[in-house]
Amino acid sequence: CPVKGDPTPNITWFHGEQPVANVTGLMYHILAAGQILQVANLSGGSHWDFSCLAQNEAGMLVQKASLVIQDYWWSVDRLATCSASCGNRGVQQPRLRCLLNNTEVDPTHCAGKVRPAAQPIACNRRDCPSR
């Protein structure tokens, strides 16, 4: 809540129309003399509307902000090309991709996420033609 004033304004944070103190299950901290709202437990894919109300004897000011949570996750994807054309020795390795909103992004974004098991799959099991 980037406000200044003399005397120093009192700052109240809201989620939607209600003060954050009244929002069930919301874990938060108010820092920097009320100017920063730190929220700890928002879930991925959620849309949150926050606002702060600053008041002093000179008047009041409302600042609004919308917050959209975007979450990265690992996806087991297409199989790589078979490592052998025949002979019952080939394997295909599933490809692991880091996604944000179903778009592949740099894998470093998924560094803290649990990787799904990606087991190799046998392929080209037929015998090789004799020469």
From TrEMBL:
Lineage top rank: taxon: Eukaryota
InterPro entries xrefs: Ig-like_dom (IPR007110), Ig-like_dom_sf (IPR036179), Ig-like_fold (IPR013783), Ig_I-set (IPR013098), TSP1_rpt_sf (IPR036383)
Protein name: Ig-like domain-containing protein
Residue ranges occupied by any Ig-like domain in the UniProt entry: 1-68
Pfam families (UniProt xref): I-set (PF07679)
Gene3D superfamilies, A to Z: Immunoglobulins, Thrombospondin type-1 (TSP1) repeat
Organism whose genome encodes this protein: Cervus elaphus hippelaphus
